[in-house]
Fold:
Amino acid sequence: MKFYFAPMEGVTGYVYRNVHHSCFPGVDKYFTPFVVANKTYKFKTREKQDVAPANNEGLFVVPQIMANKAEEFLWAAGELEKLGYREINLNLGCPAATVVSKKKGSGFLAYPDELDAFLDAVFSGLEGRDIRLSVKTRLGKDSVEEAGRLMEIYNRYPLSELIIHPRAQKDFYKNQPHMDAFGKAEKMSRHCVCYNGNLFSADDYRELVREFPQIQAVMLGRGLLADPGLVGEIREGCKLSKEKLQQFHEQICRAYGETSLGEINTLFKMKELWAYMGQLFGDGERCVRKIRKAKNQAEYVTAVKTLFETCEINSRYR
Structure:
């Protein structure tokens, strides 16, 4: 089985990826938060930093592109190819309203004819070039019943991989994944299919594999942010210890501190991580609340110290 780390906007940037890989080796591919291909034909400074080869040494990184116009996508793919990337990913899964309103991400799924024409132009433009394209998709815009039409479209093109999140855009991350619809889509697909969605524990993973033993890759997002050692537990049975989590946290803080973010922005980054990692501590709700209310570095350090000294990782994660 291959394990991929899902792209999470504002969270899984190069700083996080490098520290995670150092502390918890075992992830086969890290997907970057999307870079936007648009009519300016320029990447933002933040996007350039995130995909810079110097910031991703020793990692298998797959840049993700957000686009709905073939010429803009091909420009972005060309820029990434110049940096040495040989695999890129198209985002057709983001459910955010600001993205969907621009007919991008999972919003593009509502226009299957336009999506088909887009992919036709993209693969024509990539022909003969040494670069592979995978797609991360949902099963529809308004309903997973749209999946059949989407699979027909994807099957026409030489995707390197199809990553499926078994929800429609309107589901966001609520409700349970539509596993029956996923099963039908997986059977329809002529591509290697990677499963993505609601894998929060080793038990969740084992249940997925029992139901779909033919799956050869899984992508983890929120579950891996909550428990950064989850892949190690699945692969080797090594459950995350509080000491290992504390070491990981200290390295993340130090790595962010070495950037030009500044104290306040570093604090925001760390608080966002605790929105996920805080779930590890069943008895730590009060301490996690203090972490997220910290107004400065000193308050934050004190709150984290208290959490690690007084709370234990929930038995679900041990």
The chain has 14 helices and ten strands.
